[in-house]
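Session log. Operator J.P. requested a structure for one protein chain; no other inputs attached. Running the standard single-chain path with token output.
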Amino acid sequence: MMYAQVHLTLPAWVHQAVKNDLPYAGDEAKIRLAVELSALNVERATGGPFGAVVFDQHDRIVSVGVNRVVPHTCSVAHAEMMAYMIAQQRMQRFRLNTDNDGHRSGSFTLATSSQPCCQCFGATVWAGIDTLLIGARAEDVEALTPFDEGPLPADWVGELERRGIAVRRDILRDQARDVLRAYGEAGVRY
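Structure written below.
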């Protein structure tokens, strides 16, 4: 029998960890939540050390994501991908900042605990976000964990900015690195 659907979920603890009714004003507040999600994902043994959150123009959460690759045996279940897919389903549009008639509709931010890998970079190009906030860098991920972040264009920031996506890096980088370091030192693989 050929499978005809894919079923990906976030861990149940996410609902208690996220305050949907609060605005998260400022870049640090947004990244702090992404880093907290990454840490909880490791502590609760529900996936790898990555968290991501999509916010709307009012600084409110649209969706969250944590790494679920190993639990779901699905290589695309990265935190950013989970956050994008859930936001797109919730908004009922494949490009978050464009309505189904092709008109601009709102402004969206992705806050991620670590720089997007090559897969998540590609998804970011088409997901319809306007701002990308990043905690740890790819070199941090590769130095502190066994992960391979894959190839990116030499000027990946410039590529995103040319497409209208503002990029801000190194927000709470040390805190994001602490989660990566703890995961790497634990020797656990999920």
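Operator note: The domain at 32-184 is CATH 3.40.140.10 (Cytidine Deaminase; domain 2).
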